[in-house]
Structure formats: structure tokens, C-alpha cells
Amino acid sequence: MDERICEQCKNPFFADVNNIICNQCTELLFDKVKLYIEENEEASMKQIIEDTGVAKKHIDQWIREGRLEAKNKAIRDEMEKLRGLQKDLKSILLDENNNQQENTQKQVQKFHLKHHI
Ligand SMILES: [Zn+2]
């Protein structure tokens, strides 16, 4: 945990390395996206990102946390994709018995890097 300055409201907050905005701002962005996809069920991921100004990594995070509903097609597709990625990751982990542990860890790291999860 480090003290950082929120990119959005410029207030200091404590967070791990990945967070660039504070919890309060994250919640505001979340409400914005949630409202947007409720009103625009046909919007693509690109449109959602452009119209709300919210980075995809946040949207992915909320999808993973199960906070966004699958009413919107783009969100549904993304859910499927993330679910598929989790499955791939699991199969690498299950392979662990057949591999050296070190090797598995490397593979998992590579997987995380490649897919940003
Ligand atoms: Zn903030």
C-alpha cells in the first residue's frame, strides 16, 4: 500500500500499485458505466469506453467482480471472453502435476501479462 494522488479528484489516497484513482472516484465511474449500459443495451465496448471516458481495465475489473449486468451485448461478450481466459488459466494450473512448478508459474505470469488479467 502506497499513498498516491487520485488522478481524478487529486486527493491523496492509499492503494496498491495498480490503482490510479481513489475508491470514491471509482464508484462514481462505476455508476456512470452502469447507467450508460442500462440506457444503451446495444452499445459496443468501444462506445461504452468513448462515451463514459472510463478505461477498459476498470470495466473488466467490474465484470470480473460480477458488478455489471449482462444486459448489454458488449458486456456479455466480455464476460464470455474473461470466463474463457479464466478457464485457460485453470488448465495451465491443472497441468501443474505434469510440469515443474517453476514452469507453471512462468506460464501463469506470461498469461497474465498477455491478457492483462
Ligand atoms: Zn478520487
Description:
With 117 residues, the chain is mainly alpha-helical. It has helices spanning 23-39, 45-52, 56-64, 73-94, 101-115; strands spanning 2-5, 12-15. Strands 1-2 form a two-stranded antiparallel ribbon. Helix 4 (73-94) packs antiparallel against helix 5 (101-115). The radius of gyration is 17 Å and the shape is flat. Bound molecules: zinc ion. The site of zinc ion has 8 residues, from helix 1.
Write the layout of secondary structure elements.
Blueprint: E1 2-5, E2 12-15, H1 23-39, H2 45-52, H3 56-64, H4 73-94, H5 101-115
Antiparallel strand pairs: 1-2
Helix pairs in contact: 4-5
The chain binds zinc ion.
What key phrases describe this protein's structure?
binds zinc ion, 117 residues, flat, mainly alpha, 2 strands, two-stranded antiparallel ribbon
- Bound molecule types: zinc ion
Can you count the helices?
Answer: 5
Mean pLDDT: 86
Distance between the termini: 20 Å
